[in-house]
Design goal:
With 300 residues, the protein is an alpha+beta fold. The protein contains six helices and 17 strands. The protein has an eight-stranded mixed β-sheet with strand order 1-2-3-15-7-17-4-5, covered by helices on one side. A four-stranded antiparallel β-sheet has the order 6-16-8-14. Strands 10-9-13 form a three-stranded antiparallel β-sheet.
Length: 300
Amino acid sequence: MAIAAAFSAQTSQADTIRQGVSIEAAGGALGAVVDGIDARRPVDPAIVLRLSQAINDHHIVIFRNQALADDEFLRFATYFGAVFAPPEDVPVLASDAHGKTPDIINVANIEGGYTGNRELHLHIDHQWTPYPSSGSLLYALEVPEAGGNTTWINLALAYDELDATVKYRIDGLQLITYNPFTRQPGDRRPLYRLNPAAPPSSEAFPHPLARTHPESGRKVLYLSTDTEVEVVGWDPQAGSALIDELRAHLKDPRFAYRHQWSVGDIVFWDNRATAHARTPFPADSRRVLKRISLAGSRPF
């Protein structure tokens, strides 16, 4: 009888948690706001499944008013996948001399942090690696009064809105995104590899330009705006012109959601369906966020 009573109490509590969680669309091209989650607590399996579906449906989900220690943040993030680990010979943000990265990366303009206070152009995390990360969670501890906002682009909607003739041209094409972390500060950073005879700036891992999302099945325009790329097998001038056209398309505000950070925000985004950018902020303002990236698979 006591066991039955305890089971009934646990079930009742779980039902209350489920009923108390709401997921509402943010009202733009992508994004949903989740209420009723305290990420410090274990999350009911039904809620994990709802959140996973929300990522597929909305591409980013936003949790407000969180207060997490590092171990709590890591435990929450890994409901949705293992932590991303790059190959040792493929540098990414925060890679050490042995190619290792910490599970939690400080995206901050303080000592021990990365990315400073400058503008970050539209990019897809780890796109230049053989198995790009599936998603990332960014948690805000300190935010500036002005600037430092993050914009996400819905790459699935961007693909949907392409003209049929453009879709026909790009379906089946492979794109190389060269690794920006192999360049030194002050190096020239071209947007397209126009001289095939010159040594490439990094190892190449081609991925589909029109990627298929592995869970939703939607086609995605898998492209960033300011990283050196190359369309495999195309004349460099023709490839550059195509990429310029697609990059201009990505900048259409119809595809964007801009997030103004508040302390305690966690934003979880799908790297397989979004690109993101950051506005600059004053160097004398502190911006301290923590990022966990999740392992991915080979794009197809």
